[in-house]
Amino acid sequence: MADLIIGYRWNESLIAQLFNDRDRSCILNIPLSLSSHPDAWCWKFAFKGHYSVKSAYRFLVVEFRHREGSEIWSRFWKTKVPPKVLNFCWRALVNVVPCLSLLQSRRVPVDSMCPLCHEAPETILHILVQCPFARSCWLSSPLGWPAFSAPSLREWFSLAFLTASAENASLILMICWALWHNRNNVVWKAQGRTASGVFFMALNFLQQWRGVCSDSTSCTNVVSALTVWSPPPQGWIKVNIYASLNLQRSSLGFGCVVRDANGRFIAAKAGCFCSQMEVKCAEAVAF
Hints:
mainly alpha, 49% helix, three-stranded antiparallel sheet, 12 helices
């Protein structure tokens, strides 16, 4: 390995077979070591030469920070989009998304022509950027068509993503995901959206995800602000009841739990029935 320093002795019989007399003499006269210490393994990324996981991790982190494109990945993973969108875009950037050209290169018997335009082989760069349908989708968005001349999706992404605002960076990822989602619907279900429909699907999905995230945050804050359950006096039991109404289905759902003065669980029940009433009445019926 290049990262390991190791001493060794020449095999004279092997040298005699591979080299002429002059070269063999020069090789055998090379001083291997000026000391009498035996050869040993040495890890050059640690001060004392001993391998450790910590030293290897430090080396890999430093190498990653200086690697070309690390700034893109740093911003990429911080973009506020659904996790499955990040996962797809990461797979697209490292070229493991099963587009037809990639499948064909791995000896899968498929026609590599783009299923949307039928004008060029389907690569990941084509289906997300270069395809006429993808172009129409980008033009339907506020971003326009960032048609940078690039030989790969990663290089195109470097030019488009780093110069975009935080909101536009989110839209770039969402549109890429929506284009692939629409492509799969065309291939497997023979159903596809219009170019503007793909953009609005991406936008709506992003807004819904953000709404759910904000709702869960507010619910967490409300729950943390509620009073902690307090036990009843000794010799008593306490019944906590909760009821909810579904006006569209005209149904009532309820749940209750019974605990004693020491907080020990005694019983619980949950159920639902058809009814239309106020919440207070519903809680009384549940009781």
